[in-house]
């Protein structure tokens, strides 16, 4: 658990040690899904040599659904990225999210929660890629997902997956832009943009 001053200090250290600024443009979670993610992640048992990914109340990391991520070409472009994200978000009334499966990655260390793809979600991702490609060197990665946890104990990951049902379908209120750590996790939310249906809420 971390207090606000501890979180601020850790964030400064992490930002200082990052060789390049990494950006994650993500779909925001609702409160119920965030609670599910926090609960799941807190059940992972870690080994001493592991760099933990822990989503929990008051932790440094921000639960999110990754859409695109990559390196910021120019630190001065962040304001432009915020405007683009706001404009793209305003073109969508809402995005429905339905989860498809929990997966342990091939290296047996990461647990990922994947989404059912749909036309609006794919349209959103393509719009973001097109509009942001001049400002972010986009890193190729897997389909839209939530990274839930990392652990070196495969057997316990497998047991954990079998004991959980997928979270409920929900409607996301908008997009976020986050600063990433080395593992691609969001350390700090830099900007939030609402979809059209949530613009005045």
Lay out the secondary structure.
Elements: H1 4-17, E1 22-27, H2 31-42, E2 65-72, H3 78-90, E3 95-97, E4 99-104, E5 110-115, H4 119-132, E6 136-138, E7 145-150, H5 154-162, E8 170-172, E9 174-180, E10 186-194
Brief overview:
The protein has five helices and ten strands. It is of the alpha+beta class and 201 residues long. The model is unreliable at 47-51 (pLDDT under 50).
* Strand percent estimate: 25-35%
From the spread of the alpha carbons, the general shape counts as globular
The unreliable regions are: 47-51
Rg, alpha carbons = 17 Å
**Succession of helices and strands:** HEHEHEEEHEEHEEE
Oligomer: single chain
Query: What integer is the average pLDDT?
Result: 79
Overall description:
With 201 residues, the chain is of the alpha+beta class. 31% of the residues lie in helices and 28% in strands. It contains five helices and ten strands, in the order αβαβαβββαββαβββ. Strand 9 and strand 10 (186-194) form a beta hairpin. It is globular and about 45 Å long. The two termini are 31 Å apart.
């Amino acid at each position: 658990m971390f207090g606000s001053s501890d979180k601020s200090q850790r964030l400064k250290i992490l930002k200082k040690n990052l060789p390049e600024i990494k950006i994650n443009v993500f779909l925001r979670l609702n409160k119920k899904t965030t609670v599910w993610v926090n609960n799941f992640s807190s059940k992972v048992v870690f080994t001493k040599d592991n760099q933990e990914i822990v989503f929990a109340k008051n932790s440094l990391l921000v639960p999110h659904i990754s859409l695109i991520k990559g390196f910021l070409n120019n630190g001065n472009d962040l304001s432009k990225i915020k405007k683009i994200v706001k404009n793209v978000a305003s073109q969508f009334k809402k995005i429905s999210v339905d989860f498809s499966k929990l997966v342990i990655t091939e290296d047996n260390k990461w647990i990922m929660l994947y989404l059912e793809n749909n036309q609006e979600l794919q349209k959103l991702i393509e719009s973001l890629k097109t509009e942001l490609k001049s400002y972010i060197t986009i890193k190729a990665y897997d389909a839209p997902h939530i990274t839930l946890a990392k652990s070196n104990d495969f057997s316990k990951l497998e047991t954990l997956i079998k004991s959980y049902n997928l979270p409920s379908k929900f409607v996301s209120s908008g997009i976020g832009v986050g600063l990433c750590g080395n593992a691609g996790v969001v350390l700090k939310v830099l900007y939030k943009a609402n979809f059209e249906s949530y613009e005045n809420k």
